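User: Teach me something about this protein's shape.
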Amino acid sequence: MQLASVRYAAMPLWNVYCPEGTYSAEDKRAFAERVTDLYAEFGVPRFFVGVVFQELPKDSFFIGGEPTDDFVRIWIDAIARRAPKEAQGWWMKRIRETVAPFVTDPELRWEAHVDETPRGLWTINGIRPPAEGSEDEKRWAADNKPSQPVGSG
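Assistant: First, the predicted structure itself:
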């Protein structure tokens, strides 16, 4: 699938639920950087991308009613853009490739899903983000921060 023809899910907030101690501080930074790079590859402003690690004690994470210390759950909340139905398989493959270095340890099991929030229910610093591909969005990406619209945004 050609990258230019795909509308990807963006303004992601990645919630990574994992057992305590699964990732070091360096691992978390590398994981978050890799996720951010995935979206930046498509021109998404880097500050749109959030990654939160939710470390859970063994007695607080259950799979099938049993406590677990080997399961990573990735919940991605996408807002700014959507993967069209025909590209969803491709997008999930890109997600798998992105997280592979952090979840392929033979001691870990993992799962991921994407929720899509309507763009109209999203603001950053109280500002409605500019339209995809607009000059304002390009400025936001270059500045790596939100600002008041100056174009047709």
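Now, about its shape. The beta strands are 13-19, 50-56, 62-63, 66-67, 71-78, 109-116. The longest helix spans residues 25-40. If you'd like, I can walk through any region in more detail.
User: That's plenty for now, thanks!
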